Amino acid sequence: MADGQKSWMVALLLCFFLGGLGAHRFYVGKTGTAVVQLLTLGGCGIWALIDLIMIIIGKFKDAQGGDLQR
Questions:
Q1: C-beta atoms surrounding 7 within 10 Å
Q2: pLDDT digits (tens, 9 = 90+) for 21-44
């Protein structure tokens, strides 16, 4: 794993179990949207579900725009 690159599996598990709290977004460095997601409980679950799908299909990026390491 490259230095600073985030794990796909960790992001997936965080989103699945704590997606409504924005834990996966905190993990990848997207703190601004993570706070919003925390305050809205994942957009009533819809935003967290969309993020989960994006992580599964490999389209979710970290804060620097890089892919998650599989």
A1: 15
A2: 999 999 999 999 999 999 998 888
The SS3 of residue 44 is helix
Burial of 1 (0-12, 13-18, 19+ CB in 10 A): exposed
Which stretch of DSSP H or E encloses residue 49?
helix 46-57
With CA atoms as reference, report the closest residue to 9 among 58, 66, 65. Answer: 58
Q: Give yes or no for residue 1 having a pLDDT over 90.
A: no
Q: How far apart are CA 32 and CA 6, in angstroms?
A: 18
| Residue whose entry in the numeric block shows the structure tokens 């409980």 | 41
Residue 37 structure tokens = 């997601």
Q: Is the model more confident about 19 or about 42?
A: 19
Q: Give the global pTM.
A: 0.91
